[in-house]
Structure formats: C-alpha cells, structure tokens
Amino acid sequence: MKKFAYITLLFVPLFFSSYASASEVNIYSYRQPFLIEPLTTAFTNKTGIKVNTVYLRKGMIERMKAEGKRSPADVVLTVDISRLSALVEAELTQQVNSDQLSRNVPSKYRDPAGHWFGLTIRARIIYASNERVKNGEIVKYEELADPKWKGRICIRSGLNAYNLALTSAIIHHHGEDYAIEWLKGLKKNLARKPQGNDRAQVKAIWAGECDLSIGNTYYMGKMLKDPEQTDWAKSVNIVFPTFENGGTHVNVSGIGMARFSPNKDNALKLMEFLSSGEAQEIYATANFEYPIAPGTQVDDLVKSWGDFDADAVNLMTIAKLRKRALELTEIVDFDG
Ligand code: FE
C-alpha cells in the first residue's frame, strides 16, 4: 500500500502535465474514492470532460508548493474549514466568481473572495447514553463544562481540527476568558484523558466508561453500517446542542480552484457541477452529511436523527480564531 502510494505520488503529476488538455480536469483530494467517484462519473457523463483524481492523505500544501506553476491541480477538495483556509493562506488557490456557485452555496459557507466554497456540512454534536442521560438533560455546548457532568464525558484530543473549530466557536460567542474556563471545566468533566477518534468515544459510552461524548454527525451513519460498531451506535442518542446565543456548530467539506489551474474552464465547470443540488445530494448521502444548496433533500437516515439550526457564524470567522483556540487548548493542557 505504501509503495503504491509512493509510486502514485511520483508519476501521476508527470502524467497529468503531459496530458493536460481541453477535455480534462485534475482534482487533488483529501477525501476518499468512494465519495468522489460517483461525482466525477456523473460529471464526465454530463460533460464528456475526463476527471483525474489524486487521492492524498496528507501533504497537499507541500506538494502544490513544490510543483509551483507546473502543478497539474485544477480543483482542490477537502474537509474542514481549517484545511481550506490553510490552502488559501499558502496562496495555492485563486478567486472564482460564479453566479451559480454563489446561488448554490449560502454565504456563511463560502469565502466572500471566492477562494473556497462549501459543498456539504456536518454538525459537531453530543452523543448521549440512551440509558444514563435523559432527554433534554443537556442542550447547550456551554453545559459541557457544568460540574454536573464530572467524570462522565469522553472526547478526542483537544488539538484535533474538529475540536479546535468548536473551541473557536466558543471564543466567537463568549470571548477568550470564557473559552479558557469552558476548556478547564470540560477537562475536569472528562472520564479519561482525550484519546482515539470520534467513534472511539461512542464505543466508550457503550462500554459504560462515560455518558456523553462529542462527535460529528456522520459517524452515526458509519457506525450503523459497520456490523462491529452497530451496538455502539445503538447505545446513544444524538443531541444537537446549540450555543446560548447561537445554533449548532457545523463544519464544511469544500472546494477551491488551484492557483495555477491549467484547465481553468473545466475547473469552473466541475466546481459549478459539484455545487449543484444534484451533486451535493449524491455527495452528502454517501457520507451521511447535509447538502446546503437551496431546495436540497437530506438522506432519510440522516433526517431521522432530527433537525437543527446551524450556527449563523461565517466559517471564515471560525478559521481566523483557530490559532487562538490552539493556544488556549495548550494553555489549559487539555490533553494532559
Ligand atoms: Fe471525520
């Protein structure tokens, strides 16, 4: 597997550079093939434009910097506002003006300057034991720091991008002093040191180690579809918490046009297609996420988890607070 990845890294760009043409478009993706292939197939069927996708697990920025003006990348595709804004800050994207993209993507889920556009959202929610937590017992993110939950909460590392975005949102709503106290309070309520991924926390609820955990919504779908994890999923209810003066915290999966895109026209066509309601629904359903284009439908399973109002904050604001969120998380030694 490692060897294959290495060979792919080495030769695919050469292949792209030699064959970049009016009938192709190249994607650099942090997202997995099962999510991207249905979309690229639909796009090719519709337009005749061939899509080449490089799947990366890390190092997109380093790679695009090294490739410079010769980079074959036309469209970059990833999750999390922090990753999208890191690409923008590294000056690896370019401005895109498109009425279609502006219509399909609500303004809080895109860069006003057109460097990135969200395609789907996921909420960061509370998984609550359906045996040990009553309905309505916790409804706000702020309450996670309430001593009432002492020794009852499980969470992954505070330095993880998902948690940093949540902490950024706490800073946005309440300021830094409050955010520090919130982090300290939450830390005191932990049943164990932060560890594992979002699903491992739900497993810990199932095992009786804790009663609440924090995780992204789509993991409920993934656990339900995995025979080894179905019981974990069935031991919890999803709670869509809100901020005291806001909605539920969400993050995006999104796209941008690469700064040196060699197939700009096709890149724009692909981006507009990906932003369409039709494509968003395919994409969202494949990963139990939420489409954001006006008039789109949420998958039935995802809908069954309940409705929520997403926080109104523009995700650019969350991205800008990330550095401070990281510093505060370190100051309180959250993982220690
Ligand atoms: Fe994830």
Write structural notes for this entry.
44% of the residues lie in helices and 16% in strands. Strand 1 (24-29), helix 2 (33-47) and strand 2 (50-55) form a beta-alpha-beta unit. The protein starts with a helix and ends in a 5-residue tail after the last helix. The chain folds into 2 domains: 2-121 and 250-303, Periplasmic binding protein-like II (D-Maltodextrin-Binding Protein, domain 2, 3-Layer(aba) Sandwich), CATH 3.40.190.10; 123-247 and 313-331, 3-Layer(aba) Sandwich (D-Maltodextrin-Binding Protein, domain 2), CATH 3.40.190. It has 336 residues and is α/β, with parallel strands linked by helices. The model is unreliable at 1-8 (pLDDT under 50). The protein has 15 helices and 10 strands. The radius of gyration is 20 Å and the shape is globular. Strands 1, 2, 3, 4, 5, 6, 7, 8, 9 and 10 form a 10-stranded mixed sheet that branches.
CATH superfamily membership of the largest domain, which one? Answer: Periplasmic binding protein-like II
Q: Main β-sheet, in a few words?
A: 10 strands, mixed
CATH architecture label of the largest domain? 3-Layer(aba) Sandwich
What ligand species are in this complex?
Answer: fe (iii) ion
Proportion of strand residues: 15-25%
Distance, first to last CA: 34 Å
How large is the count of helical segments? 15
DSSP summary, beta strand count: 10
CATH topology group of the largest domain: D-Maltodextrin-Binding Protein, domain 2
CATH hierarchy class name of the largest domain: Alpha Beta
Proportion of residues in helical segments: 40-55%
